[in-house]
């Protein structure tokens, strides 16, 4: 036990050490119990002989806990828990390599497979998506297979399958009537095999297809609507009698109509005011500016899919007021 000579901490070895994997999350824990400690006793975790700062220790319960979120092969190595004070020190070691690490990943895979939720159907911008959420997924220790009408599916031009740390999904792009039917997801992790099924037909197919068409239409609107992409500052200052040029970049299909506003009123392009449109660039020029040109300007773009306005506040200062402007 720890400090055996002084009968300190003997519970740490007599109780043993354990690794526990919580089925409630992707957190993986290494727990070490210590007894007969003092206020000055120090508990520290080490990884590959270097201090590991993420460990926790509760002196009231004697529990030392090391929690590793989203365990990966990078966590492979030797872990050591050390307790010490003026009476001496002791430690215990966990060799998390080889078969020990494989055993943890195998158990995590089993837990992940058991945690898989029933398949859900979701209409998306690109098509129809089937998915199951899991508490943990590891590509090295879990295998997934999708079936449509008992026929194994392979990823292709219109069907894509994939996983994240907490989800297994199948995406059917540009869905057609031939995509209707029963879909089955098979999850294998060691000796554990689960099958989840969903029927993509009838009202389920019609609802998902309608949502797909709605989102696709919204995406087309958002992509093509008139926008002010960039260019206008929030505020611009200029000395009177100078020429002011403001340029912004717009987008939209069809090409947007463009107008300028001053204090929310249309700008008339005569005399000193000029507007030029070159492709996606729109420029307004005001020659020989004066104090009456100060105000809030906006460029308004519009097409059949929508409209947008970009704004800038113009401040014209007189000769000799440069110092005041710099101090603002």
Automatic annotation (TrEMBL):
<dbReference type="InterPro" id="IPR013783">
    <property type="entry name" value="Ig-like_fold"/>
</dbReference>
<dbReference type="InterPro" id="IPR013098">
    <property type="entry name" value="Ig_I-set"/>
</dbReference>
<feature type="compositionally biased region" description="Polar residues">
    <location>
        <begin position="14"/>
        <end position="26"/>
    </location>
</feature>
<dbReference type="InterPro" id="IPR003599">
    <property type="entry name" value="Ig_sub"/>
</dbReference>
<feature type="region of interest" description="Disordered">
    <location>
        <begin position="1"/>
        <end position="35"/>
    </location>
</feature>
<dbReference type="InterPro" id="IPR003598">
    <property type="entry name" value="Ig_sub2"/>
</dbReference>
<dbReference type="InterPro" id="IPR007110">
    <property type="entry name" value="Ig-like_dom"/>
</dbReference>
<dbReference type="Pfam" id="PF07679">
    <property type="entry name" value="I-set"/>
</dbReference>
<protein>
    <submittedName>
        <fullName>Myomesin 3</fullName>
    </submittedName>
</protein>
<feature type="compositionally biased region" description="Basic residues">
    <location>
        <begin position="1"/>
        <end position="13"/>
    </location>
</feature>
<dbReference type="InterPro" id="IPR036179">
    <property type="entry name" value="Ig-like_dom_sf"/>
</dbReference>
<feature type="domain" description="Ig-like">
    <location>
        <begin position="226"/>
        <end position="315"/>
    </location>
</feature>
<keyword id="KW-0393">Immunoglobulin domain</keyword>
């Amino acid at each position: 036990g720890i400090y055996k000579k002084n009968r300190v901490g003997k519970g740490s070895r007599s109780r043993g050490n354990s690794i526990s994997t919580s089925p409630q999350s992707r957190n993986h824990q290494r727990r070490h119990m210590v007894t007969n400690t003092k206020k000055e006793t120090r508990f520290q975790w080490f990884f590959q002989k270097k201090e590991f700062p993420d460990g926790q220790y509760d002196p009231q319960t004697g529990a030392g806990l090391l929690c590793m979120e989203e365990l990966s092969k990078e966590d492979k190595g030797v872990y050591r828990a050390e307790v010490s004070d003026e009476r001496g020190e002791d430690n215990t070691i966990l060799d998390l390599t080889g078969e020990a690490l494989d055993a943890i990943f195998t158990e995590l895979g089993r837990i992940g497979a058991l945690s898989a939720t029933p398949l859900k159907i979701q209409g998306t911008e690109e098509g129809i998506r089937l998915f199951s959420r899991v508490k943990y997924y590891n590509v090295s220790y879990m295998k997934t297979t999708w079936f449509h009408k008992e026929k194994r599916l392979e990823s292709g031009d219109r069907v894509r399958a994939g996983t994240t740390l907490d989800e297994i999904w199948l995406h059917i792009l540009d869905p057609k009537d031939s995509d209707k039917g029963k879909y089955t997801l098979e999850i294998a992790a060691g000796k554990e095999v689960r099958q989840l099924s969903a029927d993509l037909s009838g009202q389920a197919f019609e609802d998902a297809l309608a949502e797909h068409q709605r989102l696709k239409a919204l995406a087309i609107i958002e992509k093509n609507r008139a926008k002010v992409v960039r260019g206008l500052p929030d505020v611009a200052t200029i000395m009177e009698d100078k020429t002011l040029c403001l340029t912004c970049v717009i987008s939209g299909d069809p090409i947007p109509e463009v107008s300028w506003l001053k204090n929310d009123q249309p700008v008339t392009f005569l005399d000193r005011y000029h507007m030029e449109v070159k492709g996606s660039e729109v420029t307004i020029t005001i020659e020989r500016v004066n104090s009456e040109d100060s105000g809030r300007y906006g460029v308004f773009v519009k097409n059949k899919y929508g409209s947008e306005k970009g704004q800038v506040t113009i401040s014209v200062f007189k000769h000799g007021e440069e110092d005041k402007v710099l101090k603002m």
